[in-house]
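Journal club prep, shared notes

We agreed each person brings one worked example of a sequence with its structure written out as tokens. Mine is Branched-chain amino acid ABC transporter substrate-binding protein. I'm keeping it raw so we can talk through how to read the token line rather than staring at a rendered picture. Sequence first:
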Amino acid sequence: MQRTAIALALLALAGTASADITVKLGAAGPLTGPISHIGKDGENGIRLAIEDANAKGITIGGQKAKFELVSEDDQADPRTATTVAQRLADAGVKGVIGHVTSGASIPASRVYEQAGIPVITPSSTSPALTNQGFKVTYRVIANDLQQADAMANYAVKKLGVKRIAVIDDRTAYGQGLADALVASMKKLGVQVVGREFTNDKATDFMSILTKIKGQNPDAIFYGGMDAQGSPLLRQVRQLGLKSVFLSGDGLCTAEMLKLSAKDLDNRVFCTQAGIPMEKMPGGAKFKERFKQRFNAEVQLYAPYNYDAATALIEAMKAANSAEPAKYLPALKALNIKGITGNISFDAKGDIKEGGVTFYSYKDGKWAAAD
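Then the structure, token by token:
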């Protein structure tokens, strides 16, 4: 009788040891508001990565791991982002993919640092994010300094820009990219004839543009997102400004093509951190699978979200642990081939091989120019 009880106890222990474990991965981005299309696009990229990982039957520490998505809406708002970050930490997530905007990522990163939870942003490009010296903060996309240099060189050498007016939305992303562009342009001898700002809720830019019109710039740059970029471009054209219109990845979206169909022409250009999907190692297949799974086109950052989620999972596999303190060294040393390219990080947490692409508007879509 005693031997039977011991045998049953051992079987119970063995069953417990081999039982599945649930590993929660957090996602944070704007799921409501004017750029919710970008947030939802990214969330679906993460969801696809998690579904792929679960289909492989990954084991961690001798147990089959089931990855679970815990998604939060930060509304692209700095204060909400910190609340969301704390909520994810309290929920017991083992890693986070987010946030989408630099303005949300920077304050939220302090919460993750204090909690010791690795976070990988798919799209926050401000250099300030990884200049904080935090141990848990990473990104899988090029930063604003790289993007600004690429834009300035193309604008000067290919478009002949000598005078530029610069507008930003005063977010960490918009202002950060605008400041970086101004510095890059000045190095190339371009005259900055206007430096204006608005906010990320504005829709009327006439007073700013009327002032700029009198300065007769060759180009106007806007640092911000498509929700403001679209009415800004419309008003640029209404005022009869013939200037080249430049922007960053916040306007390099499928949504911008819809919002500004009547105003886009061959004078509109944007840069995007990263390379065109058709040139990504896994881009074509990802685009097809994404459309089939979600019945939607990729907006912008879905492939980077996929790679960020995959990076966390691969680091856990390499460390044979889902505990942040144990897999963080593996994340630092990670070197894998992702959808977007090679994923490995430098000492700051920046992607080592972050490309930048210059796009022009052509035949109803964004076409890679360089």
